Amino acid sequence: MMQIFVAGGSGRVATELIKNLVADGNTVVAGARHEDNIINLDGVRPVHMDLHADVDQIAELMKGSDAVYFTAGSRGKDLLQTDAFGAVKTMQAAKKLGIERYIMLSSIFALQPEKWNLDGLNQIMDYNVAKYFADNYLVNQSDLKYTILQPTNLTEEPATGKISLDVSGVTSNPIPDVAKTLAEILKHDNTVGKVIMMRSGDMPIDDALSNI
Fold first, then answer.
1. 19-33, pLDDT tens digit by residue?
2. Integer Cα distance of 33 and 154 in angstroms
3. Residues 76-102: what's their mean pLDDT?
4. Could you give the CA distance from residue 107 to residue 151 in angstroms, rounded to a whole number?
């Protein structure tokens, strides 16, 4: 059993992720600016987390955790302080505490600016810029055992339990499948140091991750 910190714990993906992590026998500390919106489950401790805070304050919330997930997002309202630098501060906090495992929820092609003019991405250009800098810091400067998951467009559809990691364009992912993939990444050491793009597909999630 692990204690896992989820940054952005009140969001749509985080809510499903937390359910999966608890079902796997873990305890969760979930941080959010509106902590009252975090799912109420046994094994889940909500904490108030402001990504405008300094690294030491964020680290205080993470103490005792074995892994960190970053699923926070400002929905375009606070891209620099939340999606970009807020993410970086959680990485710095993890490093300060000696928490090596860090899993980032990102966005498809966030590290490939040449694709940002594709239909479905061109209207979220500023978001992808923020994710580009956060992802780059994680890969090149954090010194953490990272995995970055880059799903295509999120949809509020039922889980299929199946995905594809072969992505060439902008399609979609049901939110529960993204959350399940995030949870399963923690069990697959072969995902460390990887940027994983995903879309809906026909391969069971565990098989897809095992084949990386």
1. 999 999 999 999 999
2. 22
3. 97
4. 6
Record the pTM: 0.97
Q: 140 is written with which tokens?
A: 């090149």
Dihedral sign computed on CA atoms, order 45, 50, 9, 209: negative
Residues 6 or more apart from 168 whose CB is under 8 A from it? none
The per-residue pLDDT for range 167-182, each reduced to its tens digit, is 988 999 999 999 999 9
Q: Determine the Cα–Cα distance for residues 43 and 25; give it in Å rounded to an integer.
A: 9
Task: For the chain, give the longest Cα–Cα distance.
Answer: 44
Predicted confidence (pLDDT) per residue in 101-135, tens digit: 999 999 999 999 999 999 889 999 999 999 999 99
Q: Is 119 helix (H, G, I), strand (E, B) or coil?
A: coil
DSSP annotation of 176 reads: H
> In this structure, are residues 32 and 9 in contact, taking their beta carbons and an 8 Å threshold?
yes
Residue indicated by tokens 């949870």: 183
Distance CA 181, CA 209 (A): 8
Residues 6+ apart with CB under 8 A from 151: 105, 107, 108, 173, 178, 181, 197, 198, 199
Instruction: Tell me the C-alpha distance between 129 and 110, whole Å.
Output: 7
Strand positions, DSSP E, 95-144: 101-105
DSSP 22: H
Two structure tokens written together for 105: 């929820």
